Amino acid sequence: MNLEASPRHLQLRDMLFRRWKTGGLKAGDRIESQNEIVRFCDFSLITVVKTLKDLESEGVIRRQVGKGSFLVATPWAEAHRRIGFFYNRDIVGGGIFDNAFYTRLVMAFEKGIVSAGHEFVMGSFTDARMPVGMWDALDAVVLTGFTRETRLEALADTTSQVSLIDASLDGSRFHTYRLDYGPAFAAMFAALGGARLKFLYLDSEIGSNEQAARLAAFRAAAAGAPAPQAIEIVAVNQEIDVGNTGALRSAVERVRPDVVCGHVHESWRPLIRAISPAARIYPFLLDQKGPGFVVDSAPWMAEILPTIEANLADRQRPPATHSFAARFQA
């Protein structure tokens, strides 16, 4: 429906539903009086009265003289939920399924959502634009891939419950599910013993809070290593400019590292091996065998999905940050 072309009372109905959904109102909660509605919206008293009468006749609200009006039903909420996963396509080269980590993340998230009897929807956004209209049709959206260039204004406009996964923003406006690589980095240094080794950490050129947090965690773990280590850091683009390996090649040739770790794209292994055949390579992994910093999706989803459902049941719960520790696999 084109909302602007629809009758005024239907426009008001939609606006009230959006307001009550965003506010997390449940059956039995008090809603605004007709005079309060007139004060905060651009609708006449006649339109407000008609809309409230319609909602009362439909069994959505109950009006009691002297006590106020209360929600009886929440048409926008169902036991069957529609939950979306949206990624930033500006930073995922040829699409999310060209990225092994995100591919496995989507598959694990979808499996959990569908197994719980809900509907899974996947889509994307860009640094400049977010599909708020589509999000409004969903109960919750889980977003990933924020950069320093991502415009965030639209996040405040959607009625859908917003959560962030493997991403974070300054402040505490949204439920956030982060990955903590500190324990995995520390375990790597401990496993490699007291020898002094040359480490080349591949940092991401794509600036974000998560990129900065991983680099800080690596530096902290290196500072606490059993023995002083030789640390070099080089910025790479592991997403949208994978073929540009000039900086990587130069760093590997200069450092001749014993260990290459961090944002290692799978296609870079031959280049690293050709220059430093004995180098140990530890990338970020999800549900994969082989050396690296591994995130096990099953226990991670077992923490995330019940929290999303609980937050949908009570949308007035304050936002919280949840951290899940990766592990080191030698």
UniProtKB/TrEMBL annotation:
GO terms for molecular function: DNA binding; DNA-binding transcription factor activity. Keywords: DNA-binding, Transcription, Transcription regulation. Residues 6-74 form the HTH gntR-type domain. It comes from the Bacteria. SUPFAM superfamilies: Winged helix' DNA-binding domain. The keyword Transcription regulation applies. This is GntR family transcriptional regulator. It comes from Kaistia nematophila.
